[in-house]
Amino acid sequence: MSPSAIVYASATGFTRRYADLLSERTGLPCFALGAVPGPDRGAAVLYLGWLCAGEIKGLRKARARYKVQAVCAVGMSPAGTAYTDQVRAQNHLENLPFFYLRGGYAPEKLTGFYRAMMAPMARLVSRAPAETEADRAMRDAFRDGGDWVSPERLAPVLAWLDGD
Which residues in the chain show pLDDT less than 50? Predict the structure, then answer.
């Protein structure tokens, strides 16, 4: 069964940008999770959610409402097999197509709990030695924010949608 819509949850806009890009490229309608109107209950959807401590936000709600056909997790870390395997397991995605998309970090857009949660992490990363270019990039992202949204990162998702 192919998805009939794209549904997403986004806190700072990176996941929404990927959902909009996918919608533009596929012609599938795109809806924020919980939007009215939205897809019919039980509709087959492609779900995109942002990552927080390995949890794909909104996924439980999307699964309760729709037939989730595939999942894209959007996070700030560079993609790595060990990390994506951990996210897959933590979110019980063993039997679904799963894609990781590097999004970004916008500290100025964080609110409440998430701002408080990320502040100690930002301090820790800023104090850690930046031995590699990846370390320096992560330190800079925690300090100034970062944006890695790229249409090219959608290639595996688009290939799956095309049945390749």
Answer: none
